[in-house]
Amino acid sequence: MSGPVNDAPPDGPAGRPLLAAAALPCGADVDLLLEQVAGGRGADRDAHQQQCVHCQAALSEFIALWAPVAELAAVPVPAPPGLVAGVMSQIRHLVRDIWYTLEVTESGAIRIAARIVAALARDCARMTPGVRVAFGRSTQGKTAALAEKATLGHRHPHAAIGVLGRTAVVDLAVAVTYNDPAHQVARDIQRQVITTLRDQVGLQSVKVNVTVDDILDDDER
Amino acid sequence: MTAAAQATQPAVGDAFLAARAQEGYLDAYELLVQRHSAMAYRVALRLTGNHHDAQDVAQEALIAAWENLPRFRAGSSFRTWLYQIVTRRALNKVNRGRPASSLDLLPDLADPAAEPATQAERNFAVDAVIDALLALPFPQRAVIVLHHFEGLSYAEIASVTGRTEPAVRSHLFRARRALGKKLEEWR
Questions:
Q1: Domain residue ranges of chain A, discontinuous segments joined by +
Q2: Least enclosed by CB within 10 Å: which of A180, A218, B123, B144?
Q3: Which ipTM value was assigned to this complex?
Q4: Which helix (H) or strand (E) segment is A208 a member of?
Q5: CATH for A83-216?
Q6: Of B8, B38, B183, which has the smallest distance from its Cβ to A65's Cβ?
Q7: Is the pTM of this model over 0.80?
Q8: Span A127-158, pLDDT tens digits
Q9: Are residues B1 and A119 in contact, defined by beta-carbon separation less than 8 angstroms?
């Protein structure tokens, strides 16, 4: 800084606005001072600022000027109710729905959406000891297309597109706890999921593909 | 998802969730939506100044992110990527034109401990900030919101806006000065 540090301080709101100038009489860059304040460092004054009345007055002025900005930034803004549900509902419409047909009689067909089967399998996997994280999917798009093609010739007239019959295929991606043997946990998941889907949904033939994607420490987040 | 099953689900990183979502695990993407929907709405609200537009922008952005997941690069930040999508969608919405209202930007600022006169003065001051913010050109508003409201670094804003870090810093200087001048007029 080359200018005087002890002359009369710069004008505030009553006089010429501080931001009308590029620099203070002491040579300090006004933009840098505003950046300092906006960054929450208005009180951290360097050696020059501790001596300079211009910088001190400008910093004080900017602290007052920026306070409502900081206040507004600190106001919590929650997501409106229903936003998450609305988004997921639209995405589910975009994703092709696959259905498992459990029964077809003269009274009609009983079907269950594959995503429900996947959700049940996922929840079951999450309850299995050693599992930290689990995600489930019914089938991939390619598999769905193949299944649709394969069942085209013998599909019941009332069956929905993509019916796979009584055989459910569930993919699970899991992360297991560090000290638990991954292969043992994966087998436990397969057993538990097969039992759950047979007992709760009535699916007799279930294939459960388990992919161990990660191993997490107890305190890992 | 059952409550018990949900309770056993620890907070895993965005990278893990994004990778699973790319593989077609919709429930992994649902966790990302739950985690980032407030941010998407908040940024959209600051940028559009209108609750209904903000809700539209947040919803469109979260769906667009799902549709574009195959293009999301492993190793990059899902959060920063979503900021980019929200900002672009907000720009599109603002360009289509719809008057903004400062009232929409303040869901709850009342401080029960403050005196009524002080509270009114504070609300007035914050209202002035909102009006000043909405009066800025969109690019300046965006860098102010991303840096000073969302706490993004220059590098992150550069990634969101497709500019260089020095360009972001220069843009911020101009934006802060413009906002400051409007606030000086109010004072």
A1: 18-74, 83-216
A2: A218
A3: 0.80
A4: strand A205-216
A5: 3.30.70.1350
A6: B183
A7: no
A8: 999 898 888 887 645 555 554 454 444 444 44
A9: yes
